[in-house]
Amino acid sequence: MTKKINIFSNHYDISEKVTERLIQEFKLHGYEANENFSPDADYNVVIGGDGTFIKACHDSDFSDIPFIGINTGHLGFYQEVPANNVELMVSRLINKEYQVQDIKLIDCSVFTEENSYNFLSVNEIVLKAKYTNIIHFNMYVNDILLQSFAGDGVIFSTPSGSTAYNLSAGGAMLYQALDGFQITPMAPIRSSLFRSLDKSLVVPSNTQIKLITRKREETFSSLGVDGMLQEFEDINYINITMSDKTIKKLVFDENWYWKNIKEKFI
Q1: Are both 149 and 219 inside the same structural domain?
Q2: Structural domain tally of the chain?
Q3: Is residue 50 flagged as an active site residue?
Q4: Per residue in 20-56, is it b (16+ CB within 10 Å) or e — as a string?
Q5: What is the DSSP string of the chain?
Q6: Domain boundary among 97, 116, 131
Q7: What's the pLDDT score for residue 94?
Q8: Final residue belonging to a domain, choices 97, 128, 148
Q9: Do 143 and 213 fall into the same domain?
Q10: Residue 220 binned pLDDT confidence (cut-offs 50, 70, 90)
Q11: pLDDT tens for each residue of 160-200
């Protein structure tokens, strides 16, 4: 059987040059490279930055095929392999000198008057005001009313996504293997009228979140799924929890997470 790799790449010059080198290097080891997704490939190789990695996860419908990240972007939190280390990476891959990391996903279900919609997210789910309005909703945690929120919105981030939008909004960085997710309010209002959570909250992965928006607020709210805008009318409620599904990513340096924190955030 022919060995295959799927290649996901942005269209910058540096990424295209790395792609050419990568295809040639894999050919030397008997691999066929597909720039269109093949469900029977051995690896998904992503060339670009973190945005390219997340897009590859969505475009592949969160494939069970292990992902490998080659960084030609800026931050590169998901993209472990430097662009100048392609040959070394292929050698270590062939010799199985790597670890498999499970990237946890958030599951979000939106229920409207007419339909229901389901989304998976690598980094975060964001419910916020569509324009400059304040958004109001009730948040239930395991069927208990935790807060009646008023403010700009709320972020639900995975451990690996905690260093993205969540961190910029004042949330904490979570270790990537942590079995849970984070709830971070954005510009919450605390007054005699509103009891909004004003600190981020880390909850176990089996926590069930239910958001009920107020009827008059529905047309003024929007949902962000890994930065992709989703708009709905007549939302009844939204359910959020950690998904049972994960993305598998190959890691060639067992200290990659801590090196990322040191080099990119300190």
Answers
A1: yes
A2: 2
A3: yes
A4: ebbbebbeeeebebeeebbeebbbbbbbbbbbbbbbb
A5: --EEEEEEE-S-HHHHHHHHHHHHHHHHTTEEEESS--TT-SEEEEEE-HHHHHHHHHHTTS-SSPEEEEE-SSS-SS--EEGGGHHHHHHHHHTT--EEEEEEEEEEEEEESS-EEEEEESSEEEEEESSSSPEEEEEEETTEEEEEEEESEEEEE-TGGGGTHHHHTTPPPPPTT-SEEEEEEES--BSSS-B---S-EEEETT--EEEEE-GGGGGGEEEEETTEEE--SSEEEEEEEEEEEEEEEEES-TTHHHHHHHHHH-
A6: 97
A7: 93
A8: 97
A9: yes
A10: low
A11: 999 999 999 999 999 988 999 999 999 998 887 777 888 99
Same domain, 67 and 147: no
**124 and 233 housed in the same domain:** yes
Is the domain of 52 the same as that of 120?
no
- Does residue 219 register a pLDDT over 70? no
Question: Distance between the two ends of the chain, CA-based, in angstroms?
Answer: 47
Q: Which of 13, 40, 42, 50 is catalytic?
A: 50
Together in a domain, 88 and 58: yes
For the entire predicted model, the pTM comes to: 0.92
Q: Do residue 128 and residue 208 come from a single domain?
A: yes
In a domain, 250, yes or no: no
Q: Which domain holds residue 209?
A: 105-244
